[in-house]
Design a protein that fits this description.
By secondary structure, the protein is of the alpha+beta class. It folds into two domains: 79 residues, Glutaredoxin, CATH 3.40.30; 114 residues, Glutathione S-transferase Yfyf (Class Pi), Chain A, domain 2, CATH 1.20.1050.10. The protein is built from nine helices and four strands, in the order E-H-E-H-E-E-H-H-H-H-H-H-H. The chain has a four-stranded mixed beta sheet with strand order 2-1-3-4, with helices on one face. Helix 1 links the parallel strand 1 and strand 2. The model has no long low-confidence stretch (mean pLDDT 97). The structure holds glutathione. Glutathione binds next to helix 1, helix 3 and helix 5.
């Protein structure tokens, strides 16, 4: 059984859960609470020297970096495909993947926000404004790319690795109360994906280690 080193709220782990669910693969999750810095414990760094979730243990190997894991899943479990058949289309999907995973998410990661707080005195309002700034410019470009390539999903008419990465980023945007009105195509793709069981089951709130909903 695949073992996913995880934390319910991590958007990088959420990407991998979506892909595992779309591929119909069983997995167990081992949680590392980012709020208490468990990802930095020597026992976890022995698994992932970067001290980041996710890591995926296939029984023989430990894989790290969510996009590397997504690509490995695609290569080892090609059905259903999450990348298109031809090279130019695959490049377009990967451009969407990296727009999220290289250019939006790293700027808003926990360790960056902690550093802005401790070294530059940023308060929560400033941190939220920082996140909104980088998510917004990223979403402007992604909206344009979906306009070029999307037919119901971020690329084409079936979920791809682009959706695996975009939908967790939309949730991150909602967490900082970013109004999604300027990006109707992203909102439509988000809804189309969340209507699919593979995405819904992967949602952070449905994970075993999730906090109870605030109004529960
Ligand atoms: N590029 C990495 C990013 C992983 C990452 O940033 N994970 C976050 C949670 S979403 C984390 O573990 N943060 C812990 C920290 O910043 O200390 C990937 O895609 O796997």
């Amino acid at each position: 059984m695949l073992r996913l080193h995880s934390y319910w709220r991590s958007s990088a782990v959420y990407r991998v859960r979506i892909a595992l669910n779309l591929k119909g693969l069983d997995y167990e999750q081992v949680t590392h609470d980012l709020r208490t810095d468990q990802q930095s414990a020597p026992s976890y760094k022995a698994i992932n020297p970067q001290g980041l979730v996710p890591a995926l243990d296939d029984g023989d190997h430990i894989l790290t970096q969510s996009v590397a894991i997504l690509e490995w899943l695609e290569e080892t479990h090609p059905n259903p495909p999450l990348l298109p058949k031809n090279a130019i289309d695959r490049a377009s999907v990967r451009a969407l993947v990296f727009a999220v995973t290289s250019d939006i998410h790293p700027l808003n990661n926990l360790r960056i926000l902690k550093y802005l707080k401790s070294e530059f005195g940023a308060d929560q309002t400033a941190l939220d404004a920082w996140a909104v700034r980088w998510i917004s410019s990223g979403f402007d470009a992604i909206e344009e790319l979906i306009g070029r390539h999307g037919k119901g999903f971020a690329f084409g008419d079936m979920p791809t690795l682009a959706d695996c990465c975009l939908i967790p980023q939309v949730l991150n945007a909602q967490r900082v109360n970013l109004d999604l009105t300027p990006w109707p195509l992203i909102r439509a793709v988000n809804q189309a994906c969340l209507d699919l069981p593979a995405f819904a089951r992967a949602h952070p709130q449905h994970q075993p280690d999730a906090d109870p909903p605030v109004d529960a």
